Automatic annotation (TrEMBL), chain A:
PROSITE patterns cross-referenced by the UniProt entry: HD
Sample GO molecular function, one term: dGTPase activity
CDD domains: HDc
Gene3D superfamilies hit by this protein: Hypothetical protein af1432
Any one GO BP annotation for this protein: dGTP catabolic process
Domain HD as annotated: residue spans: 61-177
Protein name: HD domain-containing protein
From TrEMBL, chain B:
UniProt protein name: YwgA family protein
Length: 439, 163
């Protein structure tokens, strides 16, 4: 029997707290899970620094990847024998679902920003490069790895296949919303996925939702909205992200300067600092390695690096106040100077963080041909964009909520000896001595 | 601080007005590919390169009162028009941006349709491939757009001129 058709002698299952069980029958899927590149995902947390806010959020990209695979597997079971669905694409969909996050690194959002990296690029490199994953995929058929890569990169010719893995109501989002809600312990994020799966219909080039299932989708959109503001945009998590980014910036700056020598050569980081990251180097860096360096860097001679690492490791985070760039630009410039006068480097200790600095998106119908919205399949077979039919979704997607916060080390300010500078800084930050805005 | 917001404001200041979010998305992507250092992250979506980060940043600029957004109902979809406000001009004046001169590129992009810019952006997305493969890829990922040989020829010429 061809490798692509081989089935395990008996079904394997992974116990999963979100989907109860993840079922594996295909030999290819079982082999992919066993590769070092896939096992590496166990060592990368799904939510990066969120566990500093919600201590339960220790789940990994490994859990999530299995979850996305399981959802796609269930969708495809429902699609069998439906018009427009070509079952020949089944294995391709399952592989793409399983491998879609393969290129994520540790704390990938901060790493990508600071070192100008792209996890999707590394996902494609792992799939098409000299790896165990590639070996397995090419055993399915020559060129199969490129197809998987194209599905994940959204450039595959069959858009229906692509939309299962990434669209505004896809298996990726349905898994992470539920999984993140479960592990953070919040009560939002839950929706009736079984109902959504039952009303999903394949059409020519996308997955649509039978209009009778609209209320289940409304619930999903509401969950998404709540999770963004309550979990993903949580200001304390953002504080940790700010510090993490500043650590990486500082370490890079020190590496590039001629008059600083690290006590231990930062071997795992060098290619990142030099902007020439090779695949094997990328795969070696996981969260345990990053934590190891941060632990060591607390002992470094550079005050900024050691302080930031100590803050990150011991959760001594920056405080924040709301910031309105329209009204407070002049005050910000004054603050910047006051921080300099006080000997606190504002490049590292005075940081404005905006909602657009985070990678999560909201449901937006968008303009025509800007992005693909969620379509409802009406009884007469016509398609209607969700927010045109649902008042709840229209209310949420029409509301543009954005946010800017100013982060700073309150403990350092409290210790300032120059009373005039200290007073003026606090006046600006807290507004005439009112400290209620400080979190 | 807010340097990426300021870069976008500089673009809107140059463009004076931009009609259509799709056109805006493709304009910024094409400028990025011409080495103008916008930092919004793009991914390939159903209609070509698309940046969620850009969408959110533009929303922020509207909420701050730096950009004026006018929404027009076109029966089955909305279209959005953007212009810079006086607050936006004041904000921009507080930045000394280190950006190359690219006003001529903005002018050229403005004269083109969003359909054409979608083609150009898609070709640029695959610009690491030989040109024959790029064209093949355009037809594969955009079969519904049905781009003609003349349009593709024009896009190649436009890209060469722009770069």
């Amino acid at each position: 029997m061809a490798y692509k058709d081989q089935q395990l002698s008996e079904e394997k299952v992974f116990k999963d707290p979100v989907h109860r069980y993840v079922h594996v029958r295909d030999r290819v899927i079982w082999d992919l899970i066993a590769t070092p590149e896939f096992q590496r995902l166990r060592r990368i947390k799904q939510l990066g620094t969120t566990n500093l806010t919600f201590h339960g959020a220790e789940h990994s990209r490994f859990n999530h990847s299995l979850g996305v695979y399981e959802i796609v597997r269930r969708i495809l079971n429902n699609f069998e024998n439906r018009p427009h669905w070509n079952n020949e694409e089944r294995l391709l969909c399952l592989c793409a679902a399983l491998l879609h996050d393969l290129g994520h690194g540790p704390f990938s959002h901060s790493f990508e920003k600071v070192f100008k990296l792209d996890h999707e690029y590394f996902t494609q490199q792992i799939i098409t490069g000299d790896t165990k994953i590639n070996e397995i995929l090419e055993n399915v058929s020559p060129g199969f790895s490129q197809k998987v890569s194209d599905v994940i990169g959204k450039t595959y010719k069959d858009k229906l296949v692509v939309s299962l893995i990434s669209s505004q109501i896809d298996a990726d989002r349905m898994d992470y919303l539920q999984r993140d809600a479960y592990y953070t312990g919040v009560s939002y994020g839950h929706f009736d996925m079984e109902r959504i799966l039952r009303v999903m219909r394949p059409i020519e080039d996308q997955v649509v939702i039978k209009s009778t299932g609209m209320h289940a989708v409304e619930d999903y959109i509401m969950s998404r909205y709540q999770m963004y503001w309550q979990v993903y945009f949580h200001p304390v998590t953002r504080s940790a992200e700010v510090i993490l980014s500043k650590i990486l910036h500082r370490a890079k700056e020190l590496y590039e300067s001629n008059d600083f020598t690290f006590k231990l050569k930062p071997t795992h980081f060098i290619s990142f600092f030099e902007g020439k990251v090779k695949l094997d180097e990328y795969l070696k860096l996981d969260e345990s390695i990053v934590h190891y360096y941060f632990q060591l860097w607390q002992e470094e001679q550079d005050d900024i690096l050691s302080d930031l690492c100590e803050r990150f490791m011991n959760r001594r985070l920056f405080k924040y106040v709301e910031f309105n760039p329209n009204l407070q630009m002049k005050e910000w410039m004054e603050l910047y100077q006051l921080f300099m006068d006080a000997g606190i480097n504002p490049e590292y200790y005075l940081v404005v963080d905006s909602s657009s600095d985070l990678p999560y998106d909201f449901y937006r119908p968008g303009e025509e041909e800007e992005r693909l919205p969620i379509h409802l399949l009406m009884p007469d077979d016509s398609l209607k964009e969700l927010s045109r039919h649902s008042d709840i979704v229209e209310a949420i997607s029409g509301k543009k909520r954005t946010d800017h916060k100013l982060y700073f080390p309150k403990d350092r300010l409290d210790k300032l000896e120059d009373k005039t500078t200290k007073k003026r800084i606090k006046e600006i930050l807290y507004g005439q001595g009112d400290v209620k805005n400080v979190r | 601080m807010l340097g990426n917001h300021a870069k976008l404001m500089q673009f809107f200041s140059m463009a004076e007005n931009v009609t259509g979010r799709k056109k805006l998305q493709k304009m910024i992507y094409i400028l990025q590919k011409c080495n103008i250092p916008f930092e919004e992250k793009y991914q390939f979506h159903f209609y070509g390169p698309y940046s969620e980060e850009l969408t959110l940043r533009v929303e922020e600029l509207c909420n701050l009162g730096f950009l004026n957004e006018v929404k027009e109902d076109r029966s089955n979809y909305y279209q959005y028009n953007y212009t810079i406000t006086s607050d936006g001009k004041d904000f921009l004046q507080q930045f000394a941006l280190d950006m190359p001169e690219y006003g001529d590129k903005v002018e050229k992009l403005k004269t083109k349709s969003s359909r054409f810019l979608e083609l150009v952006a898609t070709m640029l997305y695959f610009d690491d491939l030989p040109i024959e493969e790029t064209i093949e890829k355009v037809h594969t990922v955009k079969p519904k757009q049905n781009y003609s040989d003349e349009e593709i020829e024009e896009a190649i010429h436009f890209i060469n001129e722009l770069k």
